[in-house]
Write a structure and sequence with these properties.
The chain is of the alpha+beta class. The chain has three helices and seven strands; from the N terminus they run βααββββββα.
């Protein structure tokens, strides 16, 4: 397995409550986030959403798909959302939200290991492509989130 550590920063012109709702309800991501092909709820979790499990399928700019499950492990509405990934990617993703005037600042930390044999085999030469691909998908999310919140 190969480890990847990504940090994405977005500045969204919308109140934190609206941003939180869009990010928290990941089952709606396919409606606005290009690259998210499907999100299936496997388990609902408790009243805060902790323990919820969803299966995500992502299609990237590069010609491959990734499917993995995310289990919500921490919820501090509207500031922090954390989940553990398993499947073709394994690790942890954490959303940090912070209000700043008319904007919401978002920092997403994605610390994962690849579990697909072909990705691990190609990692020594393809790592820059995988990083570029991740950045493209995150830009799609930023653009899609801003557009959905402007409606």
């Amino acid at each position: 397995m190969n480890d990847y550590f990504f940090t994405s920063r977005w500045e969204i012109k919308a109140p934190i409550e609206k941003v939180w709702e869009a990010i928290y309800h990941s089952e709606r991501w396919p409606d606005w986030w290009k690259g998210v092909e499907s999100v299936a709820q496997l388990k609902p979790g408790n009243e805060k959403g902790i323990g919820a499990r969803r299966r995500f399928t992502w299609k990237s700019q590069l010609p491959y798909r990734l499917t993995f499950e995310m289990e919500t492990t921490r919820v501090e509405k509207p500031l922090l959302l954390e989940a553990r990934a398993s499947g073709e990617l394994e690790g942890k993703g954490t959303w940090h939200l912070q209000p700043q005037g008319p904007f919401t600042l978002i920092c997403y930390d994605w610390n994962v290991r690849t579990a697909k044999p072909w990705m691990n085999f190609l990692a020594p030469i393809a790592r820059p492509l995988f990083r570029w691909n991740h950045d493209v998908i995150m830009r799609w999310g930023e653009v899609g989130l801003q557009q959905i919140l402007e409606r």
